[in-house]
Amino acid sequence: MSYQNASPVVNSLGKTRLQHSLEQAKNRQGPSIGQWLALPGHALAKTNAALGQDWVLIDCEHGHIDDHNMYLQISAISSSGVSPVVRIPADQPWMVKRALDAGAHAIMVPMCESKEQAERIVESAKYPSKSYPNGSRGTGAMFAPAAFNLTGRDYLLSANSNVMIFVQIESRKGVDNVEEIATVDGIDVLDMLFIGPNDLASSLGYVAFDHATTPEVQQATQRILDATLAAGKYAGHFALDAAAAIRMNGGCSIGNGMKNINGTEDRNGEIKLY
After folding, report:
1. What is the CATH number of the domain that holds 61?
2. What is the CA radius of gyration of the chain?
3. pLDDT tens-digit profile of 45-67?
4. Residue 99 covered by a domain
5. How far apart are CA 260 and CA 173, in angstroms?
6. Given CA atoms 102, 105, 109, 115 in this order, what sign does their dihedral have?
7. Strand, coil or helix: what is 166?
8. Catalytic (active-site) positions
9. Does any domain span residue 33?
10. Domain span at residue 193?
11. Could you name the Gene Ontology cellular component terms for this entry (predicted)?
12. What total of structural domains would you count in the chain?
């Protein structure tokens, strides 16, 4: 690959910072640390990216972030040597395409409820190729290569393996089908199942914010975690503090609930102890 500039966002093996941090976490060499970003603004994204984390998730589902701000924030985050992840509003192929064309290192797709749906999501995120003939991602604007420090041609050659795909399991139906969803074929195809505890609690008939203390929700969460790890995929979940991350041993814990930048720095230090 022809890397245009040396940058911590992609290492010498062509792995994004997100991929590298997840591999380290899987090998018990430290956590993969990221932050949720729900507000627009290039400067805000740049500030958050400088806090020592591996990735920043731009929340276009529940956050107040449109396509214009998504593009600006992806640029701000990736140019800081941190991986930008985008949670899109729904599982629509055009939404997948917009996020990836802007340079997202990974997409998170909410409310995945079946294996067939997961396969459609994967198809929309992959360029058609000999190794993945079912891919349906169109080749268009070349904004994305800059976020990977690649030429346009090299981005096209590597995107199918460098771009990660996360789906959220956050409903009763999703839990019922999680074993099938987790076995979507192929390495570098469906990378992570992420547990959405609030919507999962609501789907099961409980108050969303009571998920951490509701036994049925915790049982469903454990089923998702077990199915995901058994299939060799990454499992993601929220952790309100380091103690919660330790309790969910085996998955990728996402720090949440920070009130300000200082709190975020403290939380990152706390989770690093894990």
Report:
1. 3.20.20.60
2. 17
3. 999 999 989 999 999 999 999 99
4. yes
5. 36
6. positive
7. strand
8. 62
9. yes
10. 17-272
11. cytoplasm
12. 1
